[in-house]
Write a structure and sequence with these properties.
Strand content of chain B: 5-15%
Shape of chain A: elongated
Number of helices of chain A: 18
Structural class of chain A: alpha+beta
Distance between the termini of chain A: 46 Å
Oligomer: heterodimer
Helix content of chain B: 40-55%
Radius of gyration of chain B: 24 Å
Distance between the termini of chain B: 58 Å
Number of domains of chain A: 3
Number of helices of chain B: 17
Strand order of the largest sheet of chain A: 3-2-4-5-6-1-7-8-10-9
Number of strands of chain B: 6
Strand content of chain A: 15-25%
Strand order of the largest sheet of chain B: 1-2-3-5-4
Chain lengths: 446, 440
């Protein structure tokens, strides 16, 4: 069963919780983690993880968690995953730093979809969970929010360069998200009184001096006007140097960035472009769709009318065809691990090939002479084979590869020429995609 | 052949059986017999072995006389393999193999064994059997190449870089091939100027023989492919552990076999060598490394204030694939890049930093696997290239304190973009001191 992977976070917004706590190194690990699991079991409810993963996966149980921690035990500590494959999908990473004093307990929790937290009671229980954790494990900083909103706030660097972030971490209030726990050090920078008087849905002082702050009853509708206003009010209260209207305008801008855009891609390359959308972070998804809606690849011009075809100039046609077949096989060898469909030689395989080369930034990563000498012939031959197999095309061999043609209906196509133009840059993979040439050839099959 | 077989280890016996069976297949053309038997006889030993094979003609005769037991003891495992290979192949391909010296072979094995130990020798044998490039490399470079390959843990590019560097430093300009001049197994043992077998001629002949013997494809014969597949099921002896390319190749072969059986394909699959060559040209990690080294070199020539990577140096010297060892830690590692200060302040040791490059597709990872991977990589980088290390390259040889270890991942689409990735990196930095994790 598939677990929630990093790339799945691009597809739909997620509730992302991040928690940095500590515990006493003098307590044995199992009793030290008991309250953590206790709270999880009590409050997670419908999203309770059912898999504990160390080196192996097991059904969730305390024993399975201990086993996983043991399997992943290293010099520095142990990292395990608690997962729930679907409905909602959950990934909880428990990252224990055991060389520190006090020991570090870090949690990264993703629950997808975010809309699961439209329900107020679910949100309340999540807050209770964080409250219970923060009570047992003194917190320096914790937050929970829409993953997209976190990204747009430039969490966790908040505009600082990496070096500064590594040095200072969460040393003061940079942002306010749906749920926040500020550790005693951060509370000090604002002033306890001031922090406790923040206008918010819930503000609560915890036993160890940290403060829990929830801006709004539900996490999922964070773009709603009232929720944004509450978020802005809380932030300017904690950071009086900020102007409410400026902060609110920034939040509105984030909303605009996240507003859904209907995909209307060029039909010949729509399957390819849809896949490009899935590679960008969730916060950039809608903008990417808008960009690709506007993108119109140029019409393929690697063809001649059939009556202008160059006649074959090779002495041995059979040998030439075998050679093209061999070249095409090199593409299979090159890509089959990433793109198993490449064996099939279908139009869908072409789209998969387009995507993979684009994903790998292939023309830019590898040495030009290798790309031109090895990849271009393989791609051209493969494209030609697909035209032959799927559109009833016929090879017209030539001594020079770039003159080799495949006749489909009233046109002859020059697959190696296309491959050459295709393999120039990452952009040219889209501008001269194999997918598009295939569709064009299909239309002119006659 | 049959009496000899009894003296061979069981795996070899099996291979010879296969060869003989293949030879009996009526519709086999002579050329195809050579093709078909190749994989079996050599367990995928690459044809670069001609270089070595040529050096063992005499050894082969000894072996032919049935002295396998003795030969097994006195020859290295690699040499035995070569011998068997040459014994099986020499006659068929009719490559003119001059009479060569068994003692030279023994000498190389002995030298290697003394230098690397029995285990090391075994490792070299495995690497050599695992890839054609390795075989060519050792075949042409002789003992020094074998040592470099061992030290590079089977990575030919690293071994090459190391070797050519070491030789350049030692002799001025000589390339690795000069090493072939001494000892055995080298191409030079085939070279005989008097008979007109100049190096060029020999090389050309070898290349031709290789081409003829080794079509890039296996025949499109499902039954044959299936039979060959039985040996692919278990990795050939010699494929290094975790050699993913091999398991990918096996998948590929099985896939093609299925299609042949179902009549959906007529052409046979690529041979391992052709497959490996194609993939080798597009090895992602090497490409990223090249890009990063170029970036660092460009950074080094900028004024100090404008540098992004090398601010800690006034005159950085950038060296790649530098062999290092750690006091108290067995084994040799190769730092992707080692930077050393050329103008250290008087009386102070030069500043040293190392870089390790990773080209991993982390997007398909789940959360805990990602965190775990970052930590494992960082920890390995620190263990291998951080703190006090001995630089082994002759021109730089000394013990140094590495001040900074940077682990650079290839970014872009390989890198997922959850908001907290940087927070994870920060934790890695806290848990594994002295290593910085970056994305490029």
């Amino acid at each position: 069963m598939k677990l929630l992977r990093m790339r799945d976070l691009n597809l739909e917004d997620t509730l992302a919780l991040s928690f940095e706590g500590t515990f006493d190194p003098d307590i044995e690990l199992e009793p030290a983690l008991e309250p953590f699991l206790q709270a999880l079991e009590e409050y997670a409810g419908e999203w309770m993880p059912n898999i504990a993963k160390g080196k192996r996966r097991r059904n969730y149980s305390r024993a399975a968690v201990w086993k996983a921690l043991e399997e992943r035990r290293a010099e520095w500590g142990s990292v395990i995953g608690l997962h729930r494959p679907t409905g909602p999908a959950v990934s909880l990473t428990l990252d224990l730093g055991l060389i520190h004093s006090p020991c570090a307990l870090r949690v990264d929790l993703d629950v997808q979809p975010l809309t699961f937290f439209t329900d107020e009671e679910r949100c309340r229980r999540l807050v209770e969970l964080v409250r219970a954790w923060a009570t047992h494990y003194p917190v320096s900083y914790a937050s929970a929010s829409s993953e997209a909103d976190l990204q747009l706030a430039d969490y966790p660097t908040f505009g600082r360069d990496d070096e500064t972030f590594y040095q200072n971490g969460f040393d003061k209030v940079y942002e306010v998200f749906w749920l926040n726990v500020f550790g005693p050090e951060v509370v000090k920078t604002v002033g306890r009184e001031r922090m406790l008087s923040t206008p918010a849905h819930r503000v609560e002082e915890l036993p160890n001096g940290s403060v829990l702050l929830v801006t709004w009853p539900t996490a999922a509708d964070f773009t709603r006007e009232e929720a944004r206003q509450a978020q802005a009010r809380a932030l300017v209260h904690l950071r009086p140097e900020l102007d409410f209207h400026t902060v609110l305008r920034t939040l509105h801008e984030r909303n605009a960035t996240l507003a859904p855009v209907e995909p209307r891609f060029h039909p010949d390359v729509a399957p390819l472009l849809s896949r490009l959308v899935d590679t960008v972070a969730i916060s950039k998804r809608q903008r990417r769709i808008a960009e690709l809606n506007a993108y119109q690849p140029p019409e393929p011009d690697e063809w001649l009318p059939a009556n202008a075809a160059l006649p074959s100039d090779v002495p041995d046609t059979q040998a030439a065809l075998e050679h093209y077949s061999l070249l095409a096989e090199y593409l299979v060898a090159l890509l089959h691990t990433e793109v198993p469909s490449v064996f099939e030689q279908t139009p869908e395989s072409l789209t998969d090939v387009d995507y993979q080369f684009w994903h790998d930034r292939f023309p830019e990563i590898f040495e030009r002479h290798n790309v031109d000498a090895r990849a271009v012939p393989a791609v051209g031959a493969y494209l030609g084979q697909v035209l032959v197999r799927r559109l009833g095309g016929q090879w017209i061999p030539r001594k020079k590869l770039e003159e080799v043609q495949v006749r489909v209906g009233q046109r002859v196509w020059l697959p190696f020429l296309r491959a050459y133009k295709y393999m120039r840059t990452r952009q040219s993979l889209l501008d001269c995609s194999l997918s598009q040439l295939y569709r064009e050839a299909e239309r002119h099959r006659g | 052949m049959s009496t000899q077989r009894l003296h061979l280890p069981p795996a070899y016996q099996h291979a010879l059986d296969e060869v003989e069976r293949a030879q009996m297949r009526a519709h086999y053309s002579a050329g195809n017999t050579a093709l078909g038997s190749f994989d079996q006889l050599t367990f995928g030993v690459p044809l670069g072995f001609y270089h070595l094979a040529a050096g063992t003609a005499h050894g082969v005769q000894v072996l032919r006389q049935g002295q396998y037991e003795q030969a097994t003891r006195s020859l290295a495992p690699a040499a035995l393999l070569v011998a068997v290979y040459a014994g099986g192949k020499g006659a068929r391909v009719r490559l003119p193999v001059p009479e060569l010296r068994l003692e030279a072979l023994q000498q190389m094995a002995w030298q290697l064994a003394e230098r690397l130990g029995g285990e090391g020798l075994g490792a070299v044998a495995r690497y050599v059997r695992a890839s054609r490039e390795s075989a060519v490399f050792v075949g042409a470079g002789g003992e020094p190449a074998a040592v470099a390959l061992y030290e590079a843990r089977g990575s030919v590019p690293k071994a090459q870089a190391w070797l050519s560097k070491a030789q350049g430093e030692r002799t001025g300009a000589a390339g690795q091939r000069t090493a072939a001049g001494k000892g055995l197994g080298g191409l030079s043992s085939l070279v005989d100027e008097v008979t007109g077998h100049t190096r060029e001629v020999v090389e050309a002949k070898l290349r031709q023989a290789e081409l003829e013997a080794l079509g890039p494809r296996l025949p499109g014969d499902a039954a044959l492919i299936k039979r060959l597949n039985t040996t692919l099921d278990t990795p050939p002896p010699g494929v290094p552990e975790g050699y993913t390319l091999w398991s990918e190749y096996v998948t590929y072969r099985q896939r093609r076999l299925a299609e042949l059986e179902q009549g959906r394909a007529v052409e046979g699959p690529l041979r391992w060598e052709a497959y490996e060559r194609m993939r080798g040209a597009f090895a992602r990690g090497l490409a990223f490394e090249r890009v990063m080294v170029a970036l660092l070199r460009a950074d080094a020539v900028l004024p100090l204030a404008q540098r992004q990577w090398l601010q800690g140096f006034s005159q950085p010297r950038i060296e790649t694939h530098v062999g290092v060892s750690k006091p108290g830690v067995p084994g040799i590692r190769f730092a992707d890049v080692l930077i050393i200060e050329e103008l250290p302040p008087a009386g102070q040791p030069p500043r040293v930093e190392t870089f390790s490059f990773k080209s991993r597709n982390l997007a398909p990872f789940d959360g805990d696997a990602l965190t775990e991977q970052l930590k494992m990589d960082a920890s390995a980088a620190q263990d291998y290239y951080g703190g006090p290390v001995d630089i082994l390259r002759p021109s730089l040889k000394r013990r140094v304190q590495v001040q900074r270890v940077r682990l650079v991942y290839e970014g872009g689409a390989l890198m997922p973009e959850p908001s907290r990735l940087k927070a994870s990196m920060n934790r890695v930095k806290k848990d594994i001191k002295g290593v910085e994790v970056l994305f490029q």
